[in-house]
Amino acid sequence: MWLNPEEVLLKNALKLWVTEKSNDFFLLQRRRGHGDTGGKFTGLLVGALDSVLDSNARVTPFRILLQVPGSQVSWTIACGAAVGEMNRHWDWLVQNLLHSLSVFENKEDVASFVKGKVKGLIAEEVRGRQAAQEEEPEKFRETLLKFELCFGLPSSENLVTTYSCCCWKGRVPRQGWLYLSINHMAFYSFLLGKEVKFVIPWAEVTRLERVSTGLMTDMVRVTTRRCQRDFSMFLSLDEAFGVIVQLADIALRRLLDSEGLELDRVLQQSSNITKRVLEEQALRTYVLALFRLPRGERLQEVALCSVWTPHARCHTTGTLFTTDSYLCFASREEGHCSLLIPLSEVISIEKAESTSLLPNPVIVSVRSKKAFQLIELQDRDSLVDSLTSRLRALQWKHSMFRSKKSLTMEQVKERMWEDNFLEYGRGVHMFRTEKIQKLVAMGIPESLRGELWMTFSDASSELASHPDYYSGLVTESMGQSSLATEEIERDLHRSLPDHPAFQNVKGIAALRRVLTAYAHRNPKIGYCQSMNILASVLLLYTKEEEAFSLLVAVCERMLPDYFNRRVIGAQVDQSVFEELIRDRLPELAEHIPDLSPLSSISLSWFLTLFLSVLPFRSAVCVVDCFFFHGIKAIFQLGLAVLDANATALCASADDGQALMILTGFLDQVKYDEDPSPPAPYPLSSQSGEEEVSPPVKQHTLITDLIADSYEKFGDLTVRQIEKLRCRHRIQVLQAHEDTTKENALRVVTPDVSLSPENLADVYDLFQTEHFINLYWGDGGTTLALQHHDPGRPYVEQYRVDRVQFKSLYMLLVPWLCGFHTDTVAHRTFTLLDQDRDSLITFREFAGWLDTLYCEELNEKVRLLYRLHIPPALTESEDDPSPLKSPLLSTTRPLHVELPNGEMRDFQEQLKQMLKDLAKEKEKDVEQPVPPMNQREFIQFCKTLYSMFHGNPDENELFQAIATVTSLVLQIGEVGHRSRCSGSEVSSEGGAGEVVEDDHREGSQEDHPVFSTKEEEEGERKEGTSKSSGSESQSEWAVSYAQILASLLTEQQLVNFFEKPMDLSAKVAEAKVKQYHERAGLLMLQQGTS
């Protein structure tokens, strides 16, 4: 075992130790006399010395020393009593540390590094034993506290586990701790006075892989869109890599593909995810995939046992897995023997008398008058009690639905299948052995095909449990019209058009009912192309309701996520298929480095189970294998097809030729009883030469091709496929996110003036805000997931709510308003939320930022203006502003005091405003906005004062806005007086003359200095009648044009709004602040709640 490094001054005192292995830095020594044959006297002498000098050495006769070249001091770092254990420690040091130590120039650093690494291994071993025994939770709390303090993440960020490891920076390793949480992976190291720490969200991970470099034989490489990190020197690299892949897969599915987790209830609540849950989930996923069980099944018990197999006349050792509704047995060697017993078929589970030959036996009796014997069951009593309890509950539940089933099967045509049924049983609980695998590979007889498809997929149990389910769906769905039914009608006559069964109304109607019923059952999938081909084949061999049950099994259990809107499952399997090609067909992969064209060709193989590329009778044999082995059969057959054509594919010149080679090969794959002649490969003749008929190539039998796939690639296991799926799903989901981002930016770019770099960074901030809400939000994960809908247009897939928008507002807005900022952010969200769904899309958010950073002064002022009129400003808004008292004064003089003390007549100032306004109108004719009343104008002024507070030119800006406020108030008062008197203001050379000239030269829309009450009410669309002329505050109003013209008279204000602002710097600052500020806010909210 590893030891805390302890100094040893005399490495070989009194010659008590013999060196077995050595290198520049480590020594493996054996206690002299231990293990020597014939050295009895030496052994007795050393034993006597041990009892006096060193009692510990008597217990641990082996040790490993750390030695530094040129030093007389060594350190004991490991000891043990078994040579095998010490050799494992020695091999670990050689493989993980020896090559790394050569990069250190200072030998003292070598000792510090190795001692730190050994201490980390000891801590990890202790923590692992504690976790296994569920002892000392204080240790984990201490680790959790270090995690929170070191990385500044909130307490709701659930830490799953930690590992001692090294992170490489170039050729230099940094020893530290890797923290794995539900949303992030983080690394911390403090070595030789240098601190290294970083956090990587799982949402940014694009690839996880195990690689080998010159220095390290095996390390974990984590690739993100921005960087690449390498980790090594794990105590158990397999375990660490498995947990990393599993956490990344779960996080990305939860964040980017929530539909895939619909039935994984445990994973929907991230706070429930622990290392134990991950291990249980991985085992559950493996069992569901191995036995093709419904995804809603929960794994209950796992027990080692042996099952009596009559065909072998012996007990087969393996593992018993029990779920809610099934007993599953798998032999120790996967694929050798398996057994599936639905609890609905079980009559009783009884304990038999235990003997020396049959220890702890259990007898499981089923309805077909067969019994299965299980022995060597640990904790038999509790297992039987649990199974019996579930069996009784299931029998009571199904008692009202169970009815006698009449077996209307065709007479068995093949004697081998008859013998097989007698020997291995019939029905869902038959033994599935290598013999049945060979029979399936030969092709199931047509009279038994439907029955065995139902048996292998366990669709028969589902159908028996819900006998009237399909007829009810047909009744509910027929006559309804939707996008799915339209697509179904379009594809009905494209389904096996050459088969007589679908050349008449009866066959088409049955296909329509099956597809429509499924679309009604599962609206998330609805209908996808290739489902029509699959359903057609199922209808040929089964009854209509059985075909529906098989379609449910294929779409929801055997090919999960294949038939949703984004076909994530099919793309994941194509990525897995590419890796299998590189691993199993290296020569082909070497000649074709880019395997994406091959995976594009093979996509239809997986989606249609080869039904669209093979002759019909051959393709049905593939479907036989699929129902028996699941997706494993399709992977094997795909590899066999490529292997059979490897030579021709390596010589192909382009993708088109490769497609012709594979298409020609698959076209000539025949069933052994098919009388049609084989089709030769198409060969092109050279121009100018007489075409010579090539020799007819013998066609390939589908049975031979399937047998070849089992022989060459049969060692591919379900566990391997599930591990590969888990890892490649990360890449596929991230590729979808990249596509979404590219298309969202492409759609938004023509509408804004932001640079492509800034727009991309803003999108990342927008998306990250959504992720943060999923990480630590308190509004419920289900509600937060609704903000992300992959089915919406690209710019609308991510949306933020009011709280998230306020967080982004604080990070990106160029002008903060102090304590008034939250109010302005609230109004901005209300203004941008045009469809009133309390969510804002990226298009709306980008348009708002574009106005602030890239538009001209008049658009910025227009935005501020609209923030202070309905709908942004509501009548019920609670505003504690001290400016709520009326500002109107009938004695206010009609003049404007300029900053230099000069008094300018109001009429002259008004004329200047109209000239400036006319220039603006010539540039662009904007849509009119409603006028602003006195209360709204007070709020407008308050916002401006708040914006200027803290500015270096604060005093000048305050003076300028005071001047503009006074001017606008006088304008509003003039309009108020004119409406109160009911006549136009007229005085020689006064303002009325200007207005009359304006009326003569153009409409009031050109120079809306004054607003009549009728226009105000019309623009607001309130539909109220004119007032009786009372001087109420609601009659006071100014227009956007008047406010804009007033602001243009003050150069200080113009400079403020036209000052260029650097969005790049703001975004860079926001990236740093976003996590910690939002995390702090959430922690504050959780503390006060």
UniProtKB/TrEMBL annotation:
Domain Rab-GAP TBC: 443-630
Region annotation (Disordered) ranges: 978-1032
Keywords for the protein's UniProt record, in alphabetical order: Cytoplasm, GTPase activation, Repeat
Protein localization: Cytoplasm, Cytosol
EF-hand domain mapped to chain residues: 820-855
InterPro entries documented for this protein: EF-hand-dom_pair, EF_hand_dom, GRAM, PH-like_dom_sf, Rab-GAP-TBC_dom, Rab-GAP_TBC_sf
Coiled coil segments of this chain: none
Basic and acidic residues: compositionally biased ranges: 997-1008
Statement: the UniProt record of this protein carries the keyword Thylakoid: no
Name this polypeptide is given: TBC1 domain family member 8B
